[in-house]
Amino acid sequence: MNLEQADPEDLAVLRAAFAVDDGGQSALGWEGVRAFEAEHGIVLPEPYRTFVAEITDGSYSGPPDYGLVGLAELPDDWGDDRPERDLRQPFPLTSQWLWEEDDSEPSEETDLLMDRVFDHGSIVLGTDGCGMYWHLVVTGPHRGHVWLITGEGATPFGAEFGFTTAEPGFAGWVEHWAANKPWFDAT
């Protein structure tokens, strides 16, 4: 997974999966991408960076079920009572955490960590509904990885984590969806 330079094969997969045929008019453009990055103090991982700059900035054709939201957007069901998102702060997890199955006592520290999981170091790609959000990590050790974050927990996507047969990262996530495979086909 090359996070610094877009692989032409990955871009071909993304173009085919989204079949955007508007000559890039739905894309944000490089100026828009750089402005977003400067505003948030980050550099988006490839191939997502090139995808939003040249192919499209959001799509109703999915993934996920309710479509891919634009770079600076959040899904309609995100809610207004969430803490402010801070993309500069690193995404706090490197392995699955199912807080619904966590036997430790609830604490303020646990609540703060859950807020950071939802709101630090990732952009929201979209939702499969019912509070199931797909995130692309943009800062921290898991930069470039896609995570499913729900009210019950957070799970990384990619074969190396044991829940799916898919390649990691944005292109692997899209390719898996385009092949019409279940998200977690290895469990």
From TrEMBL:
Domain Knr4/Smi1-like per the UniProt entry, residue ranges: 33-152
Pfam families, per database record: SMI1_KNR4
InterPro entries tied to this protein: Knr4/Smi1-like_dom, Knr4/Smi1-like_sf
Protein name: Knr4/Smi1-like domain-containing protein
Lineage, broadest ranks: Bacteria, Bacillati, Actinomycetota, Actinomycetes, Kitasatosporales
